[in-house]
Design brief:
Helix content is about 35%, strand content about 20%. The protein starts with a helix and ends with a helix. It contains 8 helices and 9 strands. The chain has helices at about 5-10, 20-30, 40-50, 70-75, 85-95, 110-125, 145-155, 200-220, and strands at about 35, 55, 80, 100-105, 125-130, 155-165, 165-170, 175-180, 185-190. It has one domain (about 20-220): Glycerol-3-phosphate (1)-acyltransferase (3-Layer(aba) Sandwich). The strands form 2 sheets. It has a 7-stranded mixed beta sheet with strand order 1-9-6-2-5-3-4, sandwiched between helices. Strands 7-8 form a two-stranded antiparallel ribbon.
Length: about 220
C-alpha cells in the first residue's frame, strides 16, 4: 500500500494539527495586500446588531482565505455547512481554530438534518454559511438549499466572494484557488436578497438563478 493510499484511509487527523495552518492563513491576511468592497455597509450593520442573521453563500473554490478575511466577532457568529466527507472533516477542524462552528452535511447528503440544524442556527442568532456548489459541483451552480432556508425563515441571502488578483488553480473539480504571494485579496460583500415564502417550483428556480447570478457578479473569474 502506498503512502497516499494509507493517508486516504485516515478518517480524522488530530485536531491540533490544524492550529499551524490557521495561524499561517491569519498571518497571510495581514502581510498580503487586502481590501474589502461592501457597498451596502452590511458588515458594519451585522457587527452592530447581533440580532440580525442571514444565509451567506460563497463558491467552493474561494474558501482558503474566507475565514481570515472577517473580524473575529463575525467568525464566532458564523456556522458553516460543511460536507460530511473525510475532506469535510479536515475543513471543519481547520475552521474551528478560527472560531467558526460547523454543521456537517449538504443538500445532497443528510439534507433534512442540515436544514434542521441550519434553522436552529439562525434562530439562535448566528449566520449560516453555504458553499452552494459543493461538495462536488457542478462548479458555480447554485443548489436550492440556501434558497429554501432563506424563504422558510424570512432571512436574507448575502453573496460573498474572496477574489485574488493572481492565484494558482488546482486540478480539482472546482479549480480551487490559492493566492500567489504578491496577490491582492479582496472580500466582496453583495446585497441582501430577500426570498419570498411559499414559492412554487418555478418561482424557486427563478430565485435560485437570481442568487446564482448575484454571486457570480461579485466573484471575479
Amino acid at each position: 500500500m502506498t503512502l497516499k493510499e494509507r493517508f486516504r484511509q485516515v478518517k480524522k487527523l488530530p485536531t491540533w494539527l490544524f492550529w499551524l495552518p490557521c495561524r499561517i492563513l491569519l498571518g497571510m491576511r495581514y502581510v498580503m495586500r487586502h481590501d474589502m468592497v461592501d457597498r451596502y455597509g452590511l458588515l458594519e450593520k451585522y457587527m452592530k446588531d447581533d440580532s440580525l442573521v442571514a444565509v451567506t453563500v460563497t463558491w467552493h473554490n474561494r474558501l482558503l482565505m474566507f475565514p481570515s478575511m472577517f473580524p473575529k466577532v463575525m467568525r464566532k457568529r458564523t456556522v458553516a455547512v460543511i460536507s460530511a466527507s473525510r475532506d469535510g472533516q479536515y475543513i471543519a477542524d481547520l475552521v474551528s481554530f478560527f472560531g467558526v462552528r460547523s454543521v456537517r452535511g449538504s443538500t445532497s447528503r443528510r439534507a433534512a438534518q442540515v436544514l434542521r440544524d441550519a434553522v436552529r442556527t439562525l434562530k439562535g442568532g448566528c449566520l449560516i454559511s453555504f458553499t452552494p456548489d459543493g461538495p462536488r459541483g457542478p462548479k458555480y451552480h447554485m443548489s436550492r438549499g440556501p434558497i429554501i432556508l432563506a424563504s422558510k425563515l424570512n432571512v436574507p441571502v448575502v453573496p460573498l466572494a474572496i477574489n485574488y488578483s493572481s492565484y494558482w488553480s488546482l486540478k480539482s473539480w472546482d479549480g480551487f484557488r490559492i493566492p500567489k504571494p504578491w496577490a491582492k485579496i479582496t472580500l466582496v460583500i453583495g446585497p441582501e436578497i430577500r426570498i419570498p415564502d411559499e414559492l412554487t417550483e418555478e418561482e424557486m428556480e427563478t430565485w435560485r438563478v437570481r442568487v446564482e447570478r448575484e454571486l457570480n457578479e461579485v466573484s471575479v473569474d
